[in-house]
Amino acid sequence: MSTLLVAEDVAVFSSHLLVHPASLTLQAGRPFTILGETGSGKSLLAQAIMGTLPRGLRAEGRVTVGDQRLDLASGQGHRALWGRTLGVLPQEPWLALDPTMRARKQVEEGYRLVRGLPAVQSRIRASADLAALGLGNAGDKLPSELSGGMAQRVAFIAARAGGARIVIADEPTKGLDVFRRDEVIALLLKEIEDGGGLLTITHDLELARQMGGDIAVVLEGQIIEQGPAADVLGAPRHDYTKRLIAADPSAWPERNAAPKRSAGVKPVLTAAGLAKTRGGQLLFENRDLTVLPGEIVGITGPSGCGKSTFGDILLDLVTPDAGTVTRAEGVARVRFQKLYQDPPAAFPQKVPIRRALNDLVRLHGLDGSRIAPLLERLRLSPGLLDRLPTQVSGGELQRFALLRVLLLDPVFLFADEPTSRLDLITQQETVELLAEVARERNCAVLIVSHDAELIRKMSDRQIAFGSPPDAAALAA
Amino acid sequence: MFGKAASILSVSVGALVIALGVSGPVRAASGAEVFNVVAPFEVKSMEPSTSGDVFLRTGVAETLVDVDENGKPLPALAERWEVSDDGKVWRFFVLPGVVFHDGSNLTAESITHALNVALARSGGLLAKAPIESIAPEGETVVVTLKQPFAPLLAFLAHNTTQILAPASYAADDTVVKVIGTGPFSLGAFEPPLKFSVERFDGYWGEKPAIAKANYLAAGRGETRALLAESGDADYVLNLDPASRVRLEKGDKVDVLSIAIPRTVLLKVNAGHPALKDVATRQALSAAIDREGIATAILRLPDAGATQLFPPSVGTWHNKSIAPLAYDIDKAKALLAEAGWTPGNDGVLERDGTRFAVTLTTYPDRPELPLIAAALQEQLREVGIAATINSTNSSEIPAKHQDGTLELGLVARNFALVPDPIGTILQDYPPQGGDWGALNWSNAEFNAAIDALSRTADASEGQVLRDKAVSILQAELPVIPVAWYQQTAAVSKKVEGARLDPFERSFGLAKVRKAP
Amino acid sequence: MAADLSLPLVAERSFWSTQRIIGVALLAAIVAFAFVTPFVFDGSPTRQSLRNVLGAPTVLEPLGYDHLGRSMLARMSAALRLSLGLAFLSVITAAVPGIALGILAAWKGGWTDRLISLVADAFLALPGLLLVLMFIAIVQDAPWALYVGISLVLWIEYFRLTRSITRALVLSPAVQASQLLGFGPLYIVRRHIWPEIAPLVLTVGAFGAASAIAAIAALSFVSVGVRPPTPELGLMMTELLPYYHEAPHALLQPVVAVFLLILSLNLIAGSNSR
Amino acid sequence: MSNHFIPPVVRTVILPRLAQAVMVALLVGVLTFILVRSLPGDMAYRIAAGRYGYDMVDTAAADAVRRELGLEQPALTALGSWLWDILRLDFGNSLISGAPVIKEIVHQFGATVELSLAAVLLSLLIGPPLGVLAGLRPGGWLDRVLLVVSSGLRSLPAFVLGLLLIILLAREFGWFPAAGHGSASNLALPALTLALGLAAVSARVARDAMLGVAQSPYYAFGRTKGLSERQVFARHGMRNVAVPIVTYLGVQFVYLIEGVVVVESLFAWPGIGHALVHAIFARDVPMIQGTALVMGLMFVVLNTGVDLACRWLDPRVARA
Questions:
Q1: Which of D137, D151, D164 to mutate to test the interface with C (most CBs of C within 10 A)?
Q2: Which residue of A201, A362, B330, C167 has the smallest Cβ count within 10 Å?
Q3: What ipTM score was computed for the predicted complex, to two decimals?
Q4: What positions does the domain ABC transporter occupy (chain A) (predicted)?
């Protein structure tokens, strides 16, 4: 196989060294995946190779593409390659499409302006590409009318329309649920079959495993392990890689049997005959549920199947079309709480965490001294209290959300995809912590996630929700 | 790299230049034949009662009687006139061979119709003359009065009494088309700011040199001055003081100025507890620095008024009486003598009432609020607290009626009717006049004025006039502050332009314009 | 320990960018000139000396005389005090109802929202000038009436801005979480909505103040505005206009004062300035 | 009425704007009515002053006007009759000139619309292009200069700016007539005075919009697709910048009317703003109500235009 791209000692600096010198070779027809957690510098490495580093950062090292040698320090020469040989599938494709332009036209411009084809022919090529990926009737739609998966496919076609054979895919599965991953993999592998090159940047271990080809693991700006996927994932040498692999829910130990519930104990909450339709689409109907104190119930299903709405109904945040929800008497409403999917969005943006917690203590007349031990229990350093929510990592903020809820001695906690935005290792810790704390305080938990494996390993019993609405579209 | 952005800029700037350029240097048609006049008076409608002055000035319409520079009546549409010995019946002989702009002949019937409409129209000046009836008799127009009234000729020279053809009037006597007898006929009429006039070849008098004239009303003094300097206007009437000084220094235009019988005066409510005694009014007058106001605001050092009428009015200017002078000590002495003692905040008090008055004026004449501000300060110097209320000009007559006016700063035009007696009769009748005396009456003065209105004898009239003026100077029902000058800027290409002291004509008929 | 500890507290683009420092310094200088001069310089804004009308600046009178021989230095500081104070008043009388109605409309939604928006649009469609002219014609002699009249038009900007921000916030998980935790609407406004709106109040306020002064100047030009001899920037521009040739220094002072005011407020408002 | 019979354009733009127009008509009618009734000063005197000028106004003239116009009509019936007249599109006659209000307005309204449109077009030619260029290079010399110049233009009242332009372009260079109305060259200076005032603000809006667009993900994706900088700007920059600029135009009309009144009286332009100020002074009620109503409706029409432009520019709005 011919080598398409060779990167030698590529490093990235701001005022100090961010990414240590790294080298990699991209073969035609063989994917190369860079695996690492958020903030580990993997994106910077890819941007350095592509020449799209943000203002204020500079790169060093050499990149050879075909017969062209580029000296990264000079920062010249990249522009000519963009679109013609090097293509980028951006991180959140639904933002990378021009909001006011129809999908087909955004693909057409690659053919017409970059390859210089006449208008009519560009139009035909664009329509053909869209149809090939099941987007035949999406040509006239605006980006705001496309689902996440469809937008990604349009962006992929648009990136290659200019003739680029080497594609750099930046976090292709971010913000998409598990069911979409297989679609994304199929999409990317299609690039390989045509003899093109693929450099994927991801924190998703499963995606790396299924892509195969070569893998490089990055930790704090340094490649700590590199080689064929089978060796790196099969027999990891570096202990960080081992912990990373162990953190995947599929590698979690099987749960021991659910603790025996003494019969006749009063349930925390019972729901009968719940039904809800949204946007003309029936989500679920005559659903019943009884939750006992301290019990962990899991709900799984593809995104858009209404599992979050179901949880919201239980907390009276959404009114059901039919059915009733009855809560245990004598329990304050405030003790039914919720954990959110995107931790920073669940806190007032401009208020330091300490003041938010003090407000809560003052409101309910709680005992302020309970905060310190809780910080200890949730492994949170007190120094973080004086920061704004946006200045704290996702994992820590979710633990602060847990602390905020625990102050109210909850009896029922609805966790709506609590860890989908977190990295693998953080996800594992957060989930274990949640389970331990809930069991200690005999607090019932309803956890919702699209990751069936995580739900199976964590909850006492599971409920599956309906088929995904646009799964049908995939089949077409 | 930003080729595209740069090309956008060049396109937009280009478009901007074209948009301005295409309409660029083609200037308003200003050949030798067209004469551009600019003045501050807006044209409200075709009615003589609201816009008659503008049609008279541009020579579209004419009156029965005309006036020479010092106000003596001259024959116009009335060739000559006779008075009955009891002074109550006037007979005017119609000038033969005069044609209206629509070709119809000027007849006694058409004159009486125009005069009767003016008599009935509210706001017209004619209604103030004691007229019994106006009727045609063959080739003459007979006006019968309730009592002898010497200034009748002056009243018939006023612009609201202009003579329009019968075809100008609709059924209900509202004017729908201005068909006059003047040297120019009305062309395009675009109220409120513009109209044009063309030379009328059938004119009975001397044909004008220019063929067409455009009239533009421009409210702002600065705009008028710049129109003159930029050559867009050949004749600009009424310059604000600052612009006049600038134009006089510059060499782009000639500046004409002439004294006119208009006086800025303080209308005093002689019934007001603080202002009822003459000594206080004398003190008020002595506290006014007229020379300072004239130089600082009007920019005319000798515009300070020593008495009610300026020298240019001749007969009404009495040289023998003592001029009003600026003397702060005398003012303070007079006030003390009148029983005023300064309160703790410096404002004078007398048996419990503070000397605080409201000075009402109006911004229609831009210099009035400025003079009011100067007066406010000068009165404060002698312990009188005046607050300025610059509002609508109709507040002066309105507050006169309900007696709430205390001090009013007004610019009174005594040339409304070419003979000042017309305005004097209006402003200083025994019971006081809207723009004249308030709660003030003097038997001797009333007798003199009444006699003056009846007699036609010049020398006897002069004695009566001098007596009347000296009484006004002594009792000061109104305190004169400054006299006015009418100004105009004329383009260098214009010959024969002059200023009419009685503001009845722009002189368009006698003007020539070099190409 | 978890790998993704928070990054060291990297200063988010600091509030005190150079642009903002210059702006605050300029504004401080203007306010100082307005409020300190009376103590340093004992000239009165109304005492006239008709002898040295439109006099050029001298040592005694650093800013020269106006068209009635009054000290420009005294008048300018008095005018700035009045204009700054009244511009602030007009911004407040616009901000308070604007923001309150904005939050109410976004919070309640439905009919309340549609009704208030319709009224706001109608107000916007009404020529602002007519409102101000009418308002002044009634209240006659009070500069504050002018500024309140102007705020009748200004409140709409506040209303629209607040409504769009609050509408996005009300649906956000943060507000839902606070409600679940038992917090009342007042807390939500104080902690969630107000911090987002505060910087915009400054931006819109900055331009509100500038357009208030410009409106006064326009009104004084058609002899409606503030009543002489009150020293007010807009009125001074109109009064000194005829003397633009003889004494340009006099006319330029109020214009430069407003220019510095707008420039400083622009700089403070920062990049998202309007 | 179910929605799919009415085309979306009408439903989302035209109907609400019509409702607003009716709202404006009512608000103007009632507001001017209440305000004029409560204005100090006797109406008859004010109208007499308006008609005959300060030299000729006196009690006799005021009483004659009071009799002629029958001003003693009780308030509510007067309001009722005015609203009824409006429905029949009879605006009544001006108390000052006696001419039908509608005829006066048509003449003067035409002049103001001519001036406003020229000013807005000119401002769009000056402001946004400069703003976009400054936005493309934030912090560059053009950006800084634009900040200072636009602050300067915003601080210069319209009459000072107008005067400067007359002195420069009319007196010194003699390119345009100093004032007056009629030929196209008269339009140049008043429109330029207004346009510079509007451009000062629209330049800032354009700059901020361009800054936002240039830093957006779709702009970067355009580059990495292989498009040249010019192509990215033309295909993705222009339209996305135009949306906020056009939306802001709607707000700017509020400040336009102030400028129009000043520019009309400075340049002796027979516009409606000028007429409104005189009408308020002279308490010419039918004229006030007629002018205010027409100006209000002009606003509604202009804003409708802005809405339609937004729909055309930004398809997302159309699909909402």
A1: D151
A2: A362
A3: 0.80
A4: 4-245, 269-474
